[in-house]
Amino acid sequence: MEEKLLKPYNPKETEERIYKLWEDSGFFNPDNLPDERHKSFTIVMPPPNANGDLHAGHTLFITLEDIMIRYKRMAGFKTLWLPGADHAGFETQVVYEKKLEKEGRSRFGMDPNDLYKEILDFTLLNKKNMETQVRSLGASCDWSREKFTLDPDVVEKTQDTFVKMYNDKIIYRGKRAINWCYKHQTSLSEVETESSEELSPLFYLKYGPFSIATVRPETKFGDKYVVMHPDDKRYAEYKHGQKIKLEWINGPIEATIIKDEAIDMEFGTGVMTITPWHSQIDFEIAKRHDLDTEQIIDWRGKLLGIANEFAGMNIKDARAKIVEKLKAKGLLIKIDEKYQNVIKKCYKCGTVIEPQIKDQWFVKMAPLTKLALNSVNRGEIKFIPDNYEKIFRYWMENSIDWNISRQIVWGIPIPAWFKGEEFKVSKEKPNGEGWTKDPDTFDTWFSSGQWPLMTTGFPKHEDFKKYYPTDVMETGHDLIFKWVPRMVIFGLYLAQKAPFHTVYLHGLVNDAQGKKMSKSKGNVINPLTLTDKYGTDALRMALIVGNTPGTDLALQENKVKGYKHFANKIWNITRFVLDNTKDVEPANASALIDECNKTIKDVTEDMENFRFYLASEKLYHYLWHRYADEIIEESKKNEEVKKSLFYILENSLKLLHPFMPFITEEIWSILPARKNLLMVEKWPLAKLGASDQKKNDNK
Ligand SMILES: [Zn+2]
């Protein structure tokens, strides 16, 4: 009897040693797998942000992907799981700014190069920490191929793509109303904002002969166009282009009548004035009619000179005072206190987004989303769960041009140069005097969107030929509109092939009560505390059993504890079987072996169909409630039963390995006459026995 088995199973003493065994074997790298394998199976790991500790969500995706990879490796595929680390542009800069704030410093006023260097040091330190944590979860990924989103070749290729898209006229530079965060001093894309409905007062103001409604009287100083629908009979007497004189906030003005079909006749009085600099819709109207635009609020949220006595005042403080003045001048008609208003906020800091007109780089989305939709229509991409196909389509059918310029230093520089109003797109500085570099960096999704291409070495690397398109993209369901479509788009645009055929989306990992974890609520569960206490295998099982794709999971410590007991149970089963079958001639066939084969068949079908939540649960019940509680008990009374025990143990360990890799590998090394690591053993084939055959014949 192996001495180890006499003591209880100790994950702490086992896990690091086993992981080293795997890593040293070289089998994480598909080039080193022991036998000839023709079919490949590839997953590109969503690169965790290298700006802090792994959270419970990371633990779930690492477990899910490791299950897929370990299963396919045992099933004879040339498996590549390609890990990465994300510099995470804006996200990391936000984390770093908080750190600076704590130290009583600020990024504003810092030399951009110094700031960049500080954030780089911070990120590289966190990257090491993150990699250690990914290893501790048992991830069987190929570290020799690891990529960082700021690796020189990634930077190079991202810039190449930008130049190509500019030359293909898919990227343009232009003035448009963008989403501006006052706190972070950068523009943001649509997906970096969050919209919510809030009750806001709606102010009805007297604008000459009209009554106009607005939630933002503080932006109205410069309003000199009054717009109505051309079909609105109430205002038929007014002609497009007609001028009217009227008294406004800071004195008499001349306003111009504009007729435009974008006006909602049902909203307010059907008439509105426009503030093109601070509203996307107004900006579009102004563009259609070639109207003047003027900035009212500066980049810090303060009113400009046009506001007269209010100039320099923060818009938050100004509103009440402006309303007071409107009232005093008799321009305030009424206030509707309960207006349902959609408010857009910065997804990181909650600051209300200000539309501002700014020269930025934009990606024309229409030609690209068409590629993505066609690919889905041709059935090239399957979504699990399948209702996400609809969400994917919605985002593809409703996307507006994508602003990829960010006013932050932490990212890949945009290869463009300016001289006055002139600009050039080029990685090298243009000839001639006076060119300055675009200080902006790319939206991080611009490079992350190309991740499956970057990691496989598009366009020329051997890996690209072997492993692209990859197989599965497994990621959080919230990335269905941020990341997944961009990868599809770039894959189709650059390589003419979708980067994966299956998208598996997991839900959030919430606290034990099902509430979203957040630092401010103080309900964050650190997964590493749980693995420390109960072992990594136990946490992996707790995350997988019963966790259907796309749905959120409540992580309960008791559940993790339960699977620690399960690990102990398997340990004790092994001890019993090895102790009691030493001199037993194993059976080749029996009803129990048939039953085990039925389990193999069932579990294999579940694995093939991404039903890991079911496969794991079946194995748990089979091993504990059938094998341990009944079969082993029976074997104490019936010698015949003993002949089948080893067969069941051996095959169960194989089936359980993707879910609980550490304990199964450890036991495997104890079983008599083991040559291979369990991780590269062949996945069991279900041999349907005589009794099963009969059942099938009767059907
Ligand atoms: Zn912000």
Description:
The chain is of the alpha/beta class and 699 residues long. Helix 8 packs antiparallel against helix 9, helix 16 packs across helix 18 and helix 16 (557-580) crosses helix 19. The mean pLDDT is 94. It binds zinc ion (ZN). Residues 181, 183-184, 346, 348-349, 351 line the site of zinc ion. It catalyses: tRNA(Val) + L-valine + ATP = L-valyl-tRNA(Val) + AMP + diphosphate. Belongs to the class-I aminoacyl-tRNA synthetase family.
Low-pLDDT segments, ≥5 res: none
Q: Report the C-alpha radius of gyration, rounded.
A: 31 Å
Structural class: alpha/beta
Strand count, sense and barrel status of the largest sheet are:
4 strands, antiparallel
Q: Report the CATH topology name of the domain at 188-354.
A: Isoleucyl-tRNA Synthetase, domain 2
Please summarize what this structure is.
With 699 residues, the protein is an alpha/beta fold.
Features:
Valine--tRNA ligase; Isoleucyl-tRNA Synthetase, Domain 1; 21 helices; alpha/beta; 699 residues; ligase; EC 6.1.1.9; binds zinc ion; ATP binding; four-stranded antiparallel beta sheet; protein biosynthesis; 18% strand; Isoleucyl-tRNA Synthetase, domain 2
Record the SSE blueprint.
Elements: H1 11-25, E1 40-44, H2 56-74, E2 78-82, E3 84-85, H3 89-102, H4 112-136, E4 147-148, H5 152-167, E5 171-181, E6 186-188, E7 193-207, E8 210-214, E9 225-228, E10 243-248, E11 251-259, E12 271-273, H6 280-289, H7 315-328, E13 332-346, E14 354-363, H8 366-377, E15 382-384, H9 388-397, E16 402-403, E17 405-406, E18 416-419, E19 422-425, E20 436-437, E21 441-442, H10 444-448, H11 451-456, H12 462-467, E22 472-476, H13 484-495, E23 502-506, E24 509-510, H14 527-534, H15 536-544, E25 553-554, H16 557-580, H17 591-608, H18 612-635, H19 639-656, H20 661-670, H21 690-698
Parallel strand pairs: 1-2, 3-4, 9-11, 15-23, 22-23, 24-25
Antiparallel strand pairs: 5-6, 5-14, 7-8, 7-13, 9-12, 10-11, 14-16, 17-21, 18-19, 18-20
This protein binds zinc ion.
Residues 181, 183-184, 346, 348-349, 351 line the site of zinc ion.
